[in-house]
Amino acid sequence: MSLERPGLLRRFFSAVFKVFKTVRNLVLNLIFLIIFVGFISVLLSDDEQVEVPESAALVLNLKGDLVEELRFVDPLEAMMNEAAGGSEETPEILVRDVVKVLERATKDDKIKVIVLELSSLGRGSLDKLQTVGSALEKFKAAGKKVLATGTFYAQNQYYLASYADSINLHPKGTVLLEGYGSYPMYYKSALEKLKISTHVFKVGTYKSAVEPFLRDDMSPEAKEANSAWLNELWSSYKQQVAGRRGFDVSNFDESFASLYQRISAADGDIAKYALDAKLVDSLKTREEFRQDVIALVGEDKENQTFNQVNYDEYHSLVIPKMQMPNPMTDKVALVVARGAIVDGNAKAGMIGGDSTAKLLRKARLDDKVKAVVLRIDSGGGSAFASEIISEEIRLLKAAGKPVIASMGAVAASGGYWIAAPANEIWAAPTTITGSIGIFAMLHTAENAVGSLGLNVDGVGTTELAGFSAGVPLFKGLPADAEKLLQRMIERGYDEFITHVGVSRNLDKAAVDKVGQGRVWTGTKALEFGLVDKLGTLEDAIASAASKASLSQFDVWVVEQELTPQQQFVKQLFGEAKTMGLLPEITPSAENKAVQQLMTELKQHVAQFSQFNDPNGIYSYCFSCELQ
Whole-prediction pTM value? Predict the structure, then answer.
């Protein structure tokens, strides 16, 4: 028996290996087939065009978050992921692309109606939603209709739907308008249980970025400041929606008691409550709504629906796959700074001090670029990287090229640092800005390692020996070192308010008064002189052109370029998806909840791991994230 057992095990593992080898070969062959068919489709794609019926509706079925800049996703990794049955973690939609699609639809005689089907629309700040909404208004001004339909309207979805001529809700549907909130996660007790010591150095009464590590709740100062700008945003939301829908701002329910009372009056029917409250205009099933649109644009009998083209299809007609700037025209360069600011180089979706400065330098050295617009959507990050970007802005101005900073959803802390030296700053009324303050933070584990029976000891030629090697992590931070770090932070804050004062021609004491880490909306920032004008990105571009005395110009988006290999795989990947060669996974409600939790945890970890300032000094606004 003992002689037979090795042979039995050998045969067992041999069988397992054969199964593994077979599965591996099948997966590799599948991927090869997708690549091969995709390659052929790329070669033939020029002959394939989406056909728009003579009378059609554009179905604006936006899937994902509205953003200023698409984050970098490796095309090969994305292709392999979807080939294996995965899905993109958080899809993103470029606001500029949506506007271009709507502008083309406005001029397209074939497009009679836009149908807003927003069930897959994710996050989108008020300024981004307003940009899309303005394009919808122009479509309506051309004598065309906008209809919205859905089963569930979340707050962002409803805001965009409010631009429609009529809003339909499924009879079993829901409208939920929650308001705005800021609810960071707090780690003080967790760190104490792990015996981790937190050392914080900051300047700014309202610089609440470090509070999660020092408290288990939000401080009164942070609540005061956050409540102010959150209430401004919510008030703006209500006034705009109420104005478009033709009811009073008091129509919004802001308590469970009020909501309970009104839903009870509708016999517990949430959809009827929405209709009674004039949040929607009709309660119709999907088939009833389809028949309404068929009456407007005609029927697609083959697919048993109304004549239509969806967003992705129409996008492929409007946005060229390869966009090349015209080398003969004068240009206003647009550089997008989206995400956390980090030292060095970063891919699209984050702001690298070196990589973003390189884009600005590219605009500076191009003779056809006469002005630059820096579009900012960032809560800040590395103070050093922010200064590297600011240096390049000053060089642009010295070269005689005006620089206009255009603030999106957020331009706070380091985001404001890079805006300050511009010739002019534009913000949306709802932009979250300010947060002028800096901090440094260090965690040490002297108590944790001691409880494990581990100790660090030795000698050095000076008290500083071993500091950069991380010795304080295990031995603790000396009191004199804490004093030194706090002094450096105080110096950094003084440099920040000096930088703002000089750049904005403001008294340093006045900057300090509205600084201290406090967050403001664009409207308040205008009152304090932190921004010059309120308006959109288009307004900022027009101002840049005016300052450069340009009457005819192109807008050139200066962005990081994909390698030829990446560009090929990206195009191939897009063709494979269009041809239905890759699976489309729709997660269950349970999986969505798990994915949302995991995404939030990953975002928290990513925020901390991406902090790489060489001096360990940051200007970041954690509370600027809405929930």
Answer: 0.83
